[in-house]
Amino acid sequence: LPSKFSILRAAIDDMLQFEQYLEEFNSTLSFRSFLINLIVTAILAMVLRWFYARFGTSISNRRSFAQNFVPLALTTFMIISVIKSSLALSLGLVGALSIVRFRAAIKDPEELTYIFLTIAIGLVTGADKPLFALVAIASILPLIYINSRGRKKPIKRQNEMFLNIQTQEKDLDTITGILTKLLKHVELRRMDQDQESMSLSYVCQVDSLQVLDKVRTELIGLSGQTSVSFVDKPELAT
Known about the structure:
- The protein is built from nine helices and four strands.
- Helix 4 runs parallel beside helix 6.
- The longest helix has 27 residues.
- The chain is elongated, with a radius of gyration of 26 Å.
- By secondary structure, the protein is an alpha+beta fold.
């Protein structure tokens, strides 16, 4: 009997603590404020998505990558809205995240910058500071634009193409030598390598289809597992 009484008492204490948490949550954030913050978060994340797809300089598929901004910002907003009034939930979240491993391939520092901006939107609006988020984004994005325009612009060339090579050939000099021998302009933009293969991304200038076919033939001859893809203009790869 004493053990049953202690179990019942513990259950009652848990219910009282949960009711107390609900009261604290309702007192710190009304439904109207929650809805306003949610809308502001979504709008700012969509603005950031458009800005990155339009003015970003990453060579990866920016439009596809930017599709993650809205759900990431909303998820961060919801988590912060719930845990900000409870120390126990905050500690529980830290414990939960400690067993989660993020394996997203972030190879461009610009991508990481925009991810942090997206998370910051969710953090600030989740802390019930939507005006701060609006002012911050309205100030940061123009600065990013001015900074990107202040960089040295590359010389525009005609007949530029984006070339991606996936091969088991590990000698970078051999691959680059083939390209420089047949093409007027060759610029390495990205290189990824593992134990089995190497992926290279170039911006190059191709004068004719005959030259392109020679490049393709010599590159495929390097290895039986070599694949080559061309895009008509570098900006089509974004």
